[in-house]
Amino acid sequence: MAKQGIDIIDCDVHISLRGGHDLLPYMPDAMKRRLLESGTGALYSGYYSPVGVPRKDAAPPGGGPAASDPDFLVEQLIDQHQIDYALLTGTMYDVSSGHDADYAAAIVSAYNDYVLDHWIGKHPSFKGTVAVSTIDPQLAAREIDRLGQHPDMVAVIMSSAARMPFGQRFYHPIYEAAERQGLPVMIHPGTEGAGSTNGPTAAGYPSYYLEWHTCLSQTFMAHLVSLVCEGVFEKYPKLKFVLVEGGVAWLPHLMWRLDKNYKALRSQVPWLKKMPSQYIREHCYLTTQPIEEPDRPGDLITLFNMIDAENMLLFSSDYPHWDFDDPHAILRTMPADMKRKIYYENAKQLFKL
């Protein structure tokens, strides 16, 4: 299809395995039986979605789960929406909800090798992300160093569901390795409240998927405040962080509140040399899906202008999930310069595409 309109980098495309057996060739022999008998070890949130998670039309005509067939994904996403690059984020980072650090590390390592063998190179738009488990950050760092120099692996991805806020020193080996390899760290929701992770909302466990899904941004807010206050961006000055599928509209409030409190309480965090909002602007990015859609579209542009969003946002579709954002249907009233940065230039620079 001839390319028309804007250039697009889609920063959140959830490819799937055809089944757990896809990982068998890449697993240590001692763990193959466990994979066959128990699966990958990802413990899901348990919240029932009445619309499912994948789009009904995303199932490949030849069979298999949605987004498990590279050729059909190219037809339905890349060609139909004229995507220049697609970051293959998958879902395997969800193994961080499990309990066995060695098994989780083996699963993500096998998954990364599977993606390299069966997806990367199938189409020039495909770019990979190094999936890691956060259960044991030393093992995660080893995986980042193993694949960090591959030319088509452009980021690290891990679950936002965790046992403790991401600024704490427990996680620093991951950031040290990511900075060493020059890769941004992406976090993505999916298993908040599952297994050994914390409750999915600040108030505890809600009853319905509607509540669970709406409150995912709470986890992102807590991680972001932790990253700043624990001094992660002073310790790793080249580290970039991407908050994927966590919403956007909450960011002005958080930046203002954190700056205001910092002015009175800065003695608690003497390692910070800048206002908290400045660290966020210099080190953090957010993806657009699910983008807020106010009744007056201009209100969203006003909000974007409050946080320098044109330099912090990255377009994402969340294909093939039920709340997929069509790049040609959202943000229609956005100024052209802002749109070009959010849809393409910010990601091109961040991921060195």
From TrEMBL:
Gene3D superfamilies: Metal-dependent hydrolases (3.20.20.140). Residues 9-353 form the Amidohydrolase-related domain. Transmembrane segments: none annotated. Keywords: Lyase. The keyword Transmembrane helix does not apply. It comes from the Bacteria. SUPFAM superfamilies: Metallo-dependent hydrolases. This is Amidohydrolase family protein. It comes from Paenibacillus spongiae.
